[in-house]
From TrEMBL:
Protein name stated in the entry: D,D-heptose 1,7-bisphosphate phosphatase
Keywords noted in UniProt: Carbohydrate metabolism, Cytoplasm, Hydrolase, Magnesium, Metal-binding, Zinc
InterPro entries: HAD-like_sf (IPR036412), HAD-SF_hydro_IIIA (IPR006549), HAD_sf (IPR023214), Heptose_bisP_phosphatase (IPR004446), Histidinol-phos (IPR006543)
Gene name per UniProt: gmhB
GO biological process: carbohydrate metabolic process
Gene3D superfamilies referenced in this protein's UniProt entry, alphabetically: HAD superfamily/HAD-like (3.40.50.1000)
Cellular localisation: Cytoplasm
Top EC category: hydrolase
């Protein structure tokens, strides 16, 4: 298989939406400043957008996997409405020591492990040297490092401005 797709891997909570705790429903979802514009910019620059998100709220019993899937479907529809496209959403519902035993598992998909990113790279023929990850925690950045994908720590402000700066830097360094 030839790997030629460039991807933007995005964490969900704290990047696309404000991290207000365990976000398991559309009603709880609050867009991060500039997030819709950031999605549109990434699409204009021909990045395949892939969300990679830990969802331990499932393992803790705060919401179900079905609720997570509904939220992610809605998020994909909203992306289209703003002129973008989310190609895939990978999530990890597992948590070692979880109160719900079915989810008490140390998964290689749970960040900082790189399982979600590596699976997406296989599924979509992602060329890692042309791709990057944006996260809001050291766990996200470590995931990117383990997957050998450039990683950027988002600490707040406008996600659109943050993405513009990343793309400018990547263009200057020839990593588009």
């Amino acid at each position: 298989m030839q790997y030629s797709v460039k991807a933007a891997f995005l964490d969900r909570d704290g990047v696309l939406n404000k991290d207000t705790g365990y976000v398991g429903s559309i009603a709880d979802f609050q867009w991060q400043e500039g997030a819709k514009e950031a999605l549109r910019i990434l699409t204009e620059w021909e990045y395949t957008i892939i969300i990679v998100t830990n969802q331990s709220g499932v393992a803790r019993g705060y919401y179900t996997e079905e609720a997570v899937r509904r939220l992610h479907h809605w998020l994909s529809v909203e992306a289209v409405r703003c002129g973008s496209r989310i190609t895939a959403v990978y999530y990890c519902p597992y948590l070692p020591g979880a109160p719900i035993k079915a989810y008490d598992y140390d998964s290689d998909w749970r960040k900082p492990n790189p399982g979600m990113v590596l699976q997406a790279c296989k599924d979509y023929a992602v060329e890692r040297s042309r791709s990057f990850l944006i996260g809001d925690s050291p766990r996200d950045i470590e995931c990117g490092k383990r997957a050998r994908v450039d990683s950027y720590l988002f600490t707040g402000g406008s996600l659109a401005d943050f993405v513009r700066n990343i793309l400018k830097e990547r263009k200057q360094s020839g990593r588009l």
